[in-house]
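User: Hey, quick favor. My workstation is busy. Could you predict this chain's structure for me?
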Amino acid sequence: MMEKKKIVFIDSEISPADHKIKDLGAVKENGSVFHSPDIHSFINFIKDGYFLCGHNIVHHDLKYLAGHISADSFEYIDTLYFSPLLFPKKPYHRLVKNDKLQNDELNNPLNDSIKARDLFYEELQAFRTLPNCLKHIFCALLYPFPEFQGFFKYIGYKPYPLTDYHIRNVFSGKICDNADIGSLIKQYPVELAYVLALIYCDDADSITPPWILRNYPNVINVNKILRQISCEKCSYCKEKRDAKKQLNRIFGFPDFRTYDGEPLQQKAAEAALHGESILTIFPTGGGKSVTFQLPAIMEGEAVHGLTVVIVPLQSLMKDQVDNLEEKGITDAVTINGLLSPIERQEAVERVRSGKAALLYISPEQLRSATIENLLLSRNVVRFVIDEAHCFSAWGQDFRVDYLYIGDFIKKLQNSKLLSSPIPVSCFTATAKQKVISDIKDYFKNKIGLDLKVYATAAERSNLRYRVIFAETEDEKYNHLRSLITSHNCPTIVYVSRTRRAQELALRLQRDGISALPFHGKMETMEKVANQESFLKNEVQCIIATSAFGMGVDKKDVRLVVHFDISDSLENYVQESGRAGRDPSIQADCCVLFNNDDLDKHFILLNQTKLSIGDIQQIWKAIKDLTKARSTIQCSALEIARQAGWDDTVNDIETRVRTAISALETAGYVKRGRNVPHVYATGILVKNMSDAAEILEKSSLFEEHDKESAKRIIKSLISARSIAEAGNDDAESRVDYIADNLGLDKRIVIRLVNTMQQIGLLADTKDMSAYIRRSDTENKIQQNLVRFLRLERYIAEKMYKQTGDYDLKSLNEQAANDGITGATVKNIRTIIYYWTIKGYIKKTGRFTQNRVSLCPLCAENDFKRRSENRAEICKFLISELFRLSQETQGRSENIPVTFSLIGLLKAFQKNTTLITMTAPMQLEDIEDALLYLSKIGALVLQGGFLVSYNGMEITRLIPDNKIKYKAEDYRQLNEFYKQKIQQIHIVGEYANLMVKNYKAALQFVSDYFHMEYKHFIAKYFKGEKAAEIERNITSEKYHKLFDTLSEKQLEIIQDDASKYIVVTAGPGSGKTRVLVHKLAALLTLEEVKHEQLLMLTFSRAAATEFKLRLIQLTGNATYFVDIRTFHSYCFDLLGRPGNTQESDTVVHDAAEMIRLGEVEQGRIAKAVIVIDEAQDMNKDDFALIEALIRQNEDMHVIAVGDDDQNIFAFRGSDSAYMKKLITEYGATQYNLLENYRSKRNIIRFSNDFVKKIKYRLKNEENVAVQQDEGIVSLTKYRSHNMETPLVMQLLSHKTIGSIGILTNTNEEAMRIVRLLKKQNRRARLIRSLDGFRLTDLAEIRCFLDEIYKNAVTPLIPDPVWEKAKEMLQNKYAGSACLKQCMFALTQFEKVNSLKKYKTDLYEFFAESKYEDFYENNDALITVSTIHKAKGREYDTVYLLLSDMYIANDEDKRKIYVGLTRAKDQLHIHCNTDLFDDIASDHVKIRIDNTEYGSPNEIDISLTHRDVYLDFFKNKQNAIRNLKSGDELLWRDGYFYSVYDGCELLVGKISAGMKNKLTAFTNKGYYIEQVHVRFCVYWKNKEEENETLIFLPELHLIKKEYASISIQSNK
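Assistant: No problem, here it is.
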């Protein structure tokens, strides 16, 4: 009877803004329809109906119709709630998607009413086909509820009393017989009905719809009670919940693995099946995967549950999924960054549809909207966390991103309204007790879970361990080769570096052993191929870094060799445990060890460590980026650059994300989702057919794009109600659309933009640009023009010659060619933009100053794009400035909101822009905006430039003064302390294994089973307790500190003072202190090499420091930046440096830093060390102050001796050292212990130094040597003292080095001549006057050979050796060759790893000729006092002719001369300089002889002394000359003799001719001429260089010559 009553099907459209009725629709059984927003007409249409039916009518439509119709006027039927009940089996019902009706039309209530009608009748038919018993069960459970009652009334069904018997009878064998069904009937009748419907359909792939899980969360608990909780008695539980039976059925294993008879694997699997949260510690190869895979598959079958497996490595995810598929198990999928869009879509769909029971993801994926929506849509039964030690700072691989896991699970539970927490299973192969405690505490505190621990104390009895000491790399290799050949079995060799893996594999191959490398930097395909070759026994050995072996099940590995020992016992046990996975075979695990291996781990730890300073830099960068707004979207690379990090460092983006995770954990920032939203409210068409018609007619879409656009618009239409609700996680998000449709995210963005352009989607102002208030339109336009000119210049260069570029050289060329605004920073910005856009491909390693470029598009196409972009950029600047005028406020940055479509239309309306070479596209606007953003013209946010915005970050603490604190860093700091201790512990194990095998095994057992503090107390007593805290081996520590004095040690151990000034007296070990301080910074104070800058005043000093540091700490210090002030500043300016163009370079660099024109990465330093700080001038100190202002936490260590400031003529002043003390609060240390000189030499110099008026230190220097030397003072009447000085020297029997120091170069040359006359070997330390070292013919020849044969920035070793050989052959007789070869040796020492052409050029351009005199005690060294600074000699002869003290600088110069002496000091003077000094320790002699002027004089000619243009026509002859060659002299002309012929080669200048005439008048004539140097010279007005020579003349008095001739006779 009831079925004859009339039914009307209705739907309403409600405005999301005001919640009022916008439209109404209805249809009757007879087909009559209604479609109007008029409520009165609607009520009139439905008034004769008895039943009102609709989809979600009870809780949606009636809510808004309640004011117009009374609740008892109709009976209500809701198709929504019956759909999953009657169509539980996949593919469910064609008209329903989740809780919505499938729809191709937007906002049409009539259409939805008709669909509700069709759905209702199909539901009616489905219900009638159900067995009567099931009908009665559903009716009895659901009749009382308004969502269901109307349906039952319509079909005339009334409930009968229901007992658990009825349900058990129908579902026998499908549910637990002992489940408390009676309680479920009373408490959860609706939930029970839905669960029973799903069970009855008997389809493992079908799942409960997400909307039911959301509205009826207890569905999960009901399912659990019926099918998940085992009674262990009934037939269902005995079969379906028996772990052992299911293990055999699913995996084919007859039984679980046991450990010493203990069924640990079975216990852990059963605990998971019982819903427990567990922590399992299984050894490598212990079968942990089965422990969670089996329960996951069983829960997938039982309750359609999803197990989420969180794994740190993408490769490991793939391996696990592949291994399951090989066993025929297809229940697992992985979603990770290695998947293509299609693969990702397929994976997402498998999870959503219920086909997947296991989902493998990384912790980072938990921040994905797609993943979150997927997990909300499924019954997540368990989270499995692999490598769970990553939770603990005491674990060997603590990861900050793991700490987000608990927050995510909690958030998911709250979103699902779960009454009980989702259980977790944590797995690790090795964990000490503190790590176990940390993991348990984490989950207890985060989500209230108590983890039950399953661990085995059993050892791998089939593994034999051995440690072999090997002192050298070759010794290691020989042991390795012997082990491999003797075992002749599958072998894994572990190394610590990727480069080592490649080299070792190649070396083994050359020795006939089949081996392949495996490491993280290899291409994925190559890694997979090499792994497969090893697994299939196609190669014997795999040479791998630690990542290899995870998830790889190769049972016949009988040898694992650690060529480099692991960095922790945990990792060592895991890696060695990859041998002997078949318990029936014996396997060997060998370590090739020396203590240097530990130092390598310490160095690597220091370089990869994220220090508190690093995180503070990232926090500062975020504060800088969020000045205008609290939320930003930017990539990790952009944050790194803002922080001043070197963006060429490996894993830079991972380090940034880790720092942000640390800031998020501490509450400073919040990471959000990274993609902007497209909301379905922006759809401007009514239905899919209208959209398709518009798309087909549009010329903006390629044919292949139209289909994708239709799929997108259809997806948006079907998601309309979610979007209208304003849900942030709507299915209309770009990333969600991309994942669901299998499209690349960039394609979705492009198509959505184009659909906005043609009017399918609304043009919302979804972008913001921020313009600095201080900027003007003209200023920005001018900056744009500069960038465009520079870009055109670089492009022309690139298309002329593809390949390697040195950015500094390129920048200098640009500047020389008149390109204003050319800087390395700007060049890098342009290259970065080109790379993003895919215009070029960067090949090779992209370092800060070197890059290899290859264009990817034709030159004409590139030029067209560039010209178009230039026009658009010019317009955009004008348009955005126009829009900015509409913005009120006084903030520093003016926000301008706009859309891409709006800018496109504005551009198209501007008829003045007619220079475009192609039709305007939306992408052109986007490209131009990106370009303006990258060159710093504006800051972009939001919109669809998401392709370049990696993260959304919200700053939570607005106060700029708040810093990231030590307490915030505590957990990370604890982890790094543990890493240090773990390296010491694994070293102790290695040493113990050599001595006592059993003791070593006990050591390992105690490590994992004792409380950590007890373990440390047992094995690290006394001095070892302190050693284990240091990130350096005890051997290296003693090498660093045992030779230092108490004061030196105090300086080196001061890591608290922000600024330190060390005033170091002569011979006090200043260089040693600096070298050891640098070593301490890099090791104990954990400063990374790129964060450390040492500045010196000479290339020789920089080279010496680098060499001594390498000797002390090893190869890691090759990368420490030790530079001269000028070199560093040339680098900041982007120009190759040289000594002759350096007058303003320091000033210019300091000014650039002040103006913010230097990349932050170039100037972001943690520590600056200044050598010879007393020599700083105004510009040098301005540079230091500029760097201090840019680095608020930077430390400065300045070392110098104010008493040795002898360069006041160049502005040097020790007042700047004092300023560091007085104005910056630097801690001052005085180094006064003199290790160089004998006691009486120090007393004498102490007495003299008191004459200096202004000093930073007033204490006397203290002699370390207590024995006396010799101090003599000879006082003359004569003005010429060179001859008696040489006579005294010849009379002395001295041992060791001898230095003769003079006041002038002329005096030095005269002394050298006198010594040579007496057949005493002497060398004169002098500079190259008027030219650079790179102009020297010998050096130029070598450089030309290098540049000719080295086609890349890197100099190959064969090219280097060939160039050296060529130099030695060509200049075999050159007097300069020895110095040149010594210079090359010095360069080799500091560049032994890699030699770059630009480094070589800068080395010579910055060096001085006198830097390359080798120490040779057999030679007497003669130099001026200035050139002797920094040197020392056993015996010093000090010539002070006519020396009067005019000021403190004169006193300091003499003091420098006095303090060069070690054993003997002989002073020759003719003034009263020392009359007031006590003479008790000085031998004083008076010489009243009047000595004449020297009979022989040497004159070295400079460029001014020769006729330069004369050389131009003599090039062929000059090319045959070498330094030291004899020349003939006649009447002002020079002749060379070649093949017996005299060749005219040179001429003196008019000025020099006059000088020589003066000498002739004094009785001198030129006795001998030779070539001093051959150099290249270039007239400023000409392009080509000319090879010239600079001669040296030997003059002799005529009467002296005749006497010499007579004596010879």
